[in-house]
Design goal:
The structure is a single chain. By secondary structure, this protein is an alpha/beta fold. It folds into 3 domains: about 110 residues, Methylthiotransferase, N-terminal domain (Rossmann fold); about 230 residues, pyruvate-formate lyase- activating enzyme, CATH 3.80.30; about 60 residues, Nucleic acid-binding proteins (OB fold (Dihydrolipoamide Acetyltransferase, E2P), Beta Barrel), CATH 2.40.50. The chain has 12 helices and 20 strands. It has a 5-stranded parallel sheet with strand order 2-1-3-4-5, with helices on both faces. A hairpin with a 4-residue loop joins strand 19 and strand 20. Helix 11 packs parallel to helix 12. The longest helix is centred in the last third of the chain and has 24 residues. It is globular. The protein starts with about 30 loop residues before the first strand and ends with a strand. Keywords: 4Fe-4S, Cytoplasm, Iron, Iron-sulfur, Metal-binding, Ribonucleoprotein, Ribosomal protein, S-adenosyl-L-methionine, Transferase. Catalyzes the methylthiolation of an aspartic acid residue of ribosomal protein uS12. This is Ribosomal protein uS12 methylthiotransferase RimO. Belongs to the methylthiotransferase family. RimO subfamily.
Length: about 450
Amino acid sequence: MSQNPPNLRPDLAPRARLTETPRPAGRDAQPTIGMVSLGCPKALVDSERILTRLRAEGYAISPDYQGADAVIVNTCGFLDSAKAESLDAIGEALAENGRVIVTGCLGAEPEYITGAHPKVLAVTGPHQYEQVLDAVHRAVPPDPDPFIDLLPAAGVKLTPRHFSYLKISEGCNHACKFCIIPDMRGRLASRPAHAVLREAEKLVASGVRELLVISQDTSAYGVDIKHAEERGHRAHITDLARDLGSLGAWVRLHYVYPYPHVRNLIPLMAEGLVLPYLDIPFQHAHPDTLRRMARPAAAAKTLDEIARWRSDCPEITLRSTFIVGYPGETEAEFQTLLDWLDEAQLDRVGCFQYENVKGARSNALPDHVPAELKQERWERFMEKAQAISAAKLEAKIGQTLPVIIDEIDHEGATCRTQADAPEIDGNLFIDEGFEGLTVGQIVNVTVDDASDYDLWGTLLEK
């Protein structure tokens, strides 16, 4: 069992897991594609959609380079460090396999990729599914066998069977100066509510116990289509959350901007329809810093809103991400952020050190913060966040909580409470009496001990 590290990047999806068994080798062997999926959960969903389409056309999915006729690398272009990671992954795939197709956010800059790796077979941008399929067809022609190649009802999944990401929209209408996501993924484009619900119903029917709702701006869902109602379902986040909550699975909301109508979600959490968990990208607290970011500068009002949420739903868990060392950030502005964090007492916190990203307007801002000062502020921020986390988890000792089991090995069961999203939050460990438990099961546990980020507990007797 592994414990949750304190510096886990909050923009990463769980590692992709391939569990399919391809058709036996030999005369009837399938054409086989490998997949390397980098970046955020939205990119992971894109990878699942690509593999589902390929699987339907008769391709096998390989978990390693050697067993693949070609490899797709789904890249991330969120930060310069993520771009470097993507280039490294492309280089590794070329070295190990030699036949590589590149897609994803970094694919919006094809010259950047081909300049470093001119031997890639093709480069496509984010959510360009047809172009990816065309590139695969050229590199490895399909050879479907209708008697053998059956597609699972839920499609090909890269997450464990018991949880799944549910993407409700693409793109973003914000113009944050540090972000180029709208340039890569376009403006907000919401899916019809009935289509989202139909996908969720299929996932739950296939055994998914937790739906993780994702988008670039979940609160804005449906704005672009004027909250259209179709087939009895309205494209508004409150209505969608209520509909999803009727399916019987845990429903977890990610990337929720703190618009006023978010308060309408809190009663659904208090009722138990959706998990009492909000992932809100606050980014900073000082109004001047937020203005330079081109984000709403109302940190004081946000504290009032947080107090209201907690009053209406005392068990709510709040997660957020922040940027330290943004251009022009003074010591006084940073101290305001620390003071705000003290007052907000957020349960789960991730933090980035600011990085220039090619094409971002923040690159041109004056007074960039030196690297060593960014590191020092990051350490001070995380020290405070860690202390808050430790105190909040210690207060849970003695409580009985429902947990979902993610993994079981000879040491015990690794679980998550309703306050913990996969990979980015903490874990709860059961060290004794875990025999007979199964992955995906939801059980009640009494908390016995706590660390800075994780809990330990004892399984209640049934």
